[in-house]
Amino acid sequence: MAGTFAFYFRTQNEPDTFLVRIADASVHLCALAIEREEGRQQIDRLVRFDALTGLPNRQYLYHHLDKLLSGNEPELAVFFLDINRFRKVNESLGYSAGDQVIITLANRLQERFGPHHFISRVGGAQFVVVASACRVDEASHLAELMQHIVGAEMSAAGQTFELKACIGISHSIGGDRETLLAHAESAMERVRESGGSYQFFNPELNQAVMQRLKLGMALRNAITEGHLRLEYQPQIRAADGQVYGFEALTRWHDPHAGDISPGTFIPLAEETGEIEHIGLWALREVCRQLFEWREKGTNVSAVSVNLSAHNFRKPDLPRYIADLLNEYQLPGNILTIEITESAMMELTDEMLARVREIRAMGAGVSMDDFGTGFSSLASLAYLPVTEVKIDKSFIDRFARDRRVNALVEAVVSIGHNLDLTVVAEGVENTHQHQQLRKMGCSVLQGFLFSRPLSANTLPVWLEAYRSPLQDAQS
């Protein structure tokens, strides 16, 4: 640290001996003040931070939890990590090596979780991680990440080895810090006794997590074992009531658990990464089914397939689609690729380039669930989409909510001005049908026209279909 000490004179003058003595004394006093402040900061660090790792210590952890709980944090997860058999590291490699292992673990945890979560060292080989606004399923995912980080290869004193942690989780809405920490530590002790990986303090949450893990394993096998199928929901042109196309919807029937709701398995697939494989399977199954229908004389003009942002991260996605179209002798415009609004906004320039490659084949690209994410109407002007789907939540409310009605009308108007097809999802009654038709909405989809159809019943439905407009005119 450096500084300057200066005198200002109204007239040009050389400092006398008295002023020099004042300056010397003042500099000495300033140095003492700086040393005092540095000492105060050092004491503060010792009080609040762990001397070995630099992480917050138990006292700082208490302060942080009190602050979160006083602010009515909606959901809080506290993870108590204890490194298994760490005493053997100290005994076999020495305490210096043990300290280095603790520092390495602290750095790894801080690097991975530090920007978003609070990490503290509370004892020898024990750490506590606090995650605010954390749901139960997110807590499970974080615990698995922690095990992965702790279990990564470690080197110390010329030896290479792997560690494992016992992790106890206390998940709560409200409560106090003592209870949260005690519950997390109690759950950790149960993990140590049972030899597992992690547990929640609440037995009901443990059961839910185990069920979710079991379901995730079943989902991995669902594609290869033929437990997934597609159903097809008709899409109807609003102007004349004729069939515009179909949306392919993935369904899962597990031989043990029965029918699993898409609201359950789609988020699970996104969490586990299986959503990418489901998307590729759906593309192939749609192309195969279209070929089969065409062979039997059933004319299906177009089918929409849902893909995730995970699919667009793969450079070979356009080639995969091109190969399928070639294998099943299909024109590109028979496919429309749907991607949700939120996922669309996550696409990088490279991923958007893949979307444009798919467009170049003649396939359509639809922004699904429009209005539920954070994009603006202006984004439609530069995104490579041919279609916008208004989410069902807006269609449910637009007839009775003036502001929602205005939003739907704006989407329809801007969509047409940009030469986009505008699809309304969740149309369930004739009033919605009539209002959307008056607005000029291009295509309607919902239970008013049909529930999703199996591949076998679709040709029968298509042959028997009579549009609501024909019924109204007869």
TrEMBL record:
Its EC number is 3.1.4.52. Pfam families: EAL, GGDEF. One of its GO terms (molecular function) is cyclic-guanylate-specific phosphodiesterase activity. SUPFAM superfamilies: EAL domain-like, Nucleotide cyclase. Residues 74-203 form the GGDEF domain. Residues 212-466 form the EAL domain. It comes from Citrobacter koseri. This is cAMP phosphodiesterase. Gene3D superfamilies: 3.30.70.270, EAL domain. The keyword Cell membrane does not apply. Keywords: Hydrolase.
